[in-house]
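Researcher: Final request for today, and then I'll write up notes for the group meeting. The sequence and the SMILES for NAP follow.
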Amino acid sequence: MRALSEGSGSVSAEEAVAALGLSEGGRPGLPRVVAIMVASIDGRATVDERSGGLGHPEDRALLRGLRAAADCVLVGTGTIAAEKYANLLDADQREARQAAGRTPHPILATLSRRGEFPWEVPVLGEEGVPKQLYSEREVELPANATETSLHVSDGGLRGALEHLHGERGVLSVACEGGPGVLRALLADDLVDDLLLTLAPLVVAGDGPTSLAGAALDPPAELRLAGVRRADDHLFLHYAR
Ligand SMILES: NC(=O)c1ccc[n+]([C@@H]2O[C@H](COP(=O)([O-])OP(=O)(O)OC[C@H]3O[C@@H](n4cnc5c(N)ncnc54)[C@H](OP(=O)(O)O)[C@@H]3O)[C@@H](O)[C@H]2O)c1
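Model: Predicted protein-NAP complex:
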């Protein structure tokens, strides 16, 4: 599927990801951080407690393309649990990474200050997925925690990103939220790009919005770097 892009004709999700230039890395000492979220017109992040109901094939292509391009997928424990994370990449994406001399799978990074990780969710036991966990306290890893490293620190998200860059050689991070983690990243000026998909739905209710937590003071200000559309979904690219 190709989506319209303001000013530059038709651009696929793959081309939109390639245009981010993730291999160039981020600011000194940090990886490049690209956050990706989907929201309803009224800013809700879920329909029936999952984000899938807001999606569109082009949005799924963008998400999977971004994962495949990044060195690391960073996602909060709340999202891993709610969305029952598994099979982040397709077999052909793993093969393409390997053919390009990269690891078949990006590092999956997640963090819980309390040290409470949703071990029952498939991705945390998935073979072939390197996992990097961050916590403020020691955690006993269960037997199914394969290829899992734990870093204990009170350095928050900045500390985790510095660790990913400095110790794991990560140049690019795809952050899939959720609302708690995205707020913390924006509050600490750690987001370089925000890919926001706007679904043509009005949801209301009291489900999560794109960001959770206290108001940002002052609000984080971003620049609109690109607009695409596919059917009635809008794809907004904001940059720092
Ligand atoms: N529409 C979308 O694109 C989208 C994307 C992702 C998620 N979602 C939805 O969002 C919901 C989950 O939201 P959520 O806010 O619970 O998930 P989250 O942001 O994925 O995870 C929050 C958890 O992350 C941990 N955490 C570690 N450091 C943190 C920090 N500095 N700030 C905030 N949290 C930190 C916290 O555990 P500790 O308290 O142990 O530190 C907290 O419970 C689900 O319904 C999911 O479907 C929607």
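Model: The helical segments are 13-18, 57-69, 77-83, 91-99, 156-168, 179-187. The pocket of NAP is lined by residues 37-39, 45-46, 49-51, 54, 75-79, 82-83, 111-114, 116, 156-157, 176-181, 184, 208, 212 (CB under 6 Å).
Researcher: Thanks, that's everything.
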